[in-house]
Amino acid sequence: MSDIAATKDKYAAQIAGAEDLRVLDDIRVAALGKKGEVSKMMQGLGKMSIDEKKVMGPALNGLKNDIAALIEAKKTELEDAALDAALASETMDMTLPVGSPSGTLHPVQQVMEEMAVIFSDMGFSVAEGPDIEDDFHNFTALNFPPGHPARDMHDTFFMTSQEGEEPKVLRTHTSPVQIRTMINQKPPIRIIAPGRTYRCDSDQTHTPMFHQVEGLVIDKGIHMGHLKGVLMDFVSAFFETDVDVQFRPHHFPFTEPSAEMDVRYERDGAAIKIGQGESWMEILGCGMVHPNVLRACGLDPEEYQGFAFGMGVDRLAMLKYGMPDLRDMFAADTRWLAHYGFDPLLQANLASGLS
Ligand code: PHE
Predict the structure, then answer these.
(1) Does 215 score more than 70 pLDDT?
(2) What domain range is 280 assigned to?
């Protein structure tokens, strides 16, 4: 019997000292494995007398169970310790300072914010409208009569429609927001409407989805001088330098007279310098709101006048920040975003500079 007590003490000490699960398993094999010490002691039972068996049988079984219980308890202890160690080493200290922000603002987002800052300084607010429009807001109310050829110039994406229903369109410009605003607000109106627009077109300078910023001013006594003043101030603020502009007559169904505004620029190798030089580049369309558009929105053209303008955000971002291909804007290549992206913590503002 003293053998049993000694064996138990020996293994209890070994188990208590086991440092990891592998050592613990070696102890289990040495004691309880097929050829283990306790198993061998149990094999000895066969040669014993019945009386001896009666005493030694339960004693050896007790030894086996005690050792197994000690091993099980130690195993749980070691597993808990391993989990605690893993948790401790994988802890993240949320209060540590950030090295550099891992995300950047997309140039389109940056440029839209720059535009909003400039126009809000002039008293404009930001308006929005849906990407999926109906024919009335995208065309008819903007003085594109049904069947008018100017509709074809917009490479429109039409949605499939129910029998007998007129198909909805992905808006081809932000001008429908003019209509929504004039119908829902009383003049004076001064808004810009930034957002996504869609045309079925794709090459180095066209993508099927692109961004525009629309501008609209409606009040009494508004004339072309106001339009020119606002846009001249805008481009100089946007390009952060004096920019020479020219207005060329143009046609849009929703404005009369209509114009395109060009900025002076010159090429310097691959770079384009805006503001100086002998060449002109078109950057936006504009004009005085057509009386038919005012009427379609319930305004009396004898009482109210206004001007509108629209420009491509992506193209202006390319010009200002020197990106060669419009399609890269939407390719979601993180290297491109890391290179051309903006620090999200630095908000565009007129006091410290826009960019
Ligand atoms: N909606 C026109 C376009 O997408 C731009 C524009 C807006 C022109 C407002 C004049 C006035 O081409």
Answers:
(1) yes
(2) 107-340
